[in-house]
Amino acid sequence: MTAEALRPWDGRLGRWQYLDAAEKGLLIAPDGSIYARDYHGYIYIWCAAARLAQHLRDLCRRSDAVIDVSEQTARALRVTADALYSMAGR
Hints:
Blueprint: E1 7-8, E2 12-13, E3 16-18, E4 27-28, E5 34-37, E6 43-47, H1 52-62, E7 66-68, H2 69-87
Antiparallel strand pairs: 1-4, 2-3, 3-7, 4-5, 5-6
C-alpha cells in the first residue's frame, strides 16, 4: 500500500465510531483497510477491511474508545419520546 492512496480515517464504520482514530493518526485505504504509522514512521496495517466491524465491536466491549452510534441514536430518540409524552401529559 502506498502512502499516497491513504487518507485520514474519521473512525466511522456503519454503527461504530472509533473515537481515538484522529489522535492515533489512523489512515484508511480505498479497500477499507485501516493503517497506522509506527514510531519510525513506517506504515503498517492496523486492521483489514474484512475484520474491521468485528474489531470495532470487540473494542467497544472492552473500552470506551468505540461507541455504538446506533445505540446512542436510539437512546436519544427514547429520551426525546419520553420528554414529548411527558409534555403531552401521558
